[in-house]
Amino acid sequence: MRLVSLLGLGGVCLACSSADPGGGADLALRIQGAQLERGSLPEPSGAAEVTFVDWRRTRIRAGEAGVPIAGRASQGSYAVNIGLAGDAGYWIRNVGVEDPTAVGELSWSAGLDFASWISGDAVQLLLQAVDGEGRPGAVRTVSAAVESLEPNGQLVIELSWDTDADLDLYVTEPSGVTIGPKNINAYDPPEPGEPRDDPEAFEQGGMIDVDSNSNCVIDGLRREAATWQSSPPEGAYEVRVDLPALCGAVDPSSYQLVVRLDGEEVKRVAGPMYAADARSTAASGDVGVFVASFTLQNGERR
Length: 302
Ligand SMILES: [Ca+2]
Description:
Layout: H1 2-10, E1 29-31, E2 35-38, E3 50-54, E4 59-61, E5 67-73, E6 77-84, E7 89-94, E8 106-114, E9 122-131, E10 136-147, E11 155-161, E12 166-172, E13 178-179, E14 207-208, E15 223-228, E16 235-245, E17 253-261, E18 264-273, H2 275-282, E19 289-296
Parallel strand pairs: 4-10
Antiparallel strand pairs: 1-8, 2-7, 3-5, 5-8, 6-7, 6-9, 9-10, 11-15, 11-17, 12-13, 12-16, 14-15, 16-19, 17-18
Bound molecules: calcium ion (CA).
């Protein structure tokens, strides 16, 4: 059916080499700057080899874009095929220059865009070097668990953005406690000598789930969230966003802030975030730029 529809749309696929640059919207994996090839990875028929894979993620999120992967391929390699197990196509990424850390081997890298509709518990990435004669080598695999798109919690405040800058989410609770990348949990442990709390008490406070792009270690997430698993305190919340480092990204970043209560979206704010704005506001004593406030009333306390 796929072939029929392609013929119907383009009418030029007579020999059907099946190259399909620029498409792939139906695939769970897309790679910018790579060429799409339909079908499964070809059977190995050569000696080209992916010799090293730099894959730092044990988890990816459905809908995540620009997840970095890199590695090396054996001398004489021309490209690396990158696919996702179960997908209806794969991507051909040309290798780059000789890797300075490994004599004779060639470096490659790619940014992986995962579809928002990915299902299942895990993804398996398939990697295959191709030599200059077009002969593919053995397939190498790496994997990651898949998390759902939305973070969980009775109250969720999620910040996302569209560049590789380091943006930081700060939320001030009604108590006046601010959580952010340097204080990721609103729980205030008892002083030494005071009675100990329930060992799971720390889970009751607001928590920052991840500090994306921290110190310009680009992780591809471009989002971070504050979550309250249960009983978010009643009262006024204030949300600020900081941009401590552009990390080479072009100013401004477009950010989006979404507040969900019991899974229902109750507030959405979006706009540009300029590094200069964040830094100038930080000089006033408050970290970052004020972006939203809201009040919880008539509680969800349990
Ligand atoms: Ca961050």
